[in-house]
Amino acid sequence: MNISRYGEEGIRILFGEKIDLEIHERVRRYYFFLKSLQLEEITDIIPSFRSCLILFDRKKTSCEALTASLREKEFLIAHIDIPEPKTCEVPVEYGGESGFDIDFVASHTGLSEDEIIEIHTSVTYKVFAVGFLPGFPYLGILDQRLYVPRLETPRLRVPEGSVGLAQLQTGIYPFESPAGWRIIGRTNKKLFDYNKEPYSIFQIGDKVRFIRA
Questions:
Q1: What is the per-residue DSSP string for 51-92?
Q2: So what CATH class is 87-212?
Q3: Percent of the chain with pLDDT strictly greater than 90
């Protein structure tokens, strides 16, 4: 575990150099450990693929003091209870107007449209991180047969619910927005609701299965 300063009011905890499930579980456990401490000097905790970013209030602590405090409390990590991940099924209409990049994916991978859909729906994905947009899940690990590059120039917008591929990730756009991923389908499932806590239907560690609609 590598701890370093991140800007004026941040500390970055790095758990590894690659994206895999073991590192993901370490990030997830540390994230819930931080939440369990309920430290008033911590203003936000942002988990990602390989790290946790801690934002703190400089009026209440310093990078050095907070780092030392976290080091002292590390023994508690093994004793915390972390929530069981939820499993969410996401119905998707693949191809056509809903998945306007599926022809490119087929051409790039050498797979047929049906093979792409079969592979994409055969995996139970982990939510490695939520971000970019409120409720946007970064899902992995994508089958290597579906590896495609991002767009060289992102589109100005794609429809809400668009399901995309980028390298070894898949994700869902919770709102109409700019997009650099290859869109293969669309879901009508609501991912984020400003009026209903906990707002996002996903949190780090949850499981997602896509179903052909």
A1: EEEEEE-TTT--HHHHHHHHHHHGGGGGG---PPPPEEEEEE
A2: mainly beta
A3: 92
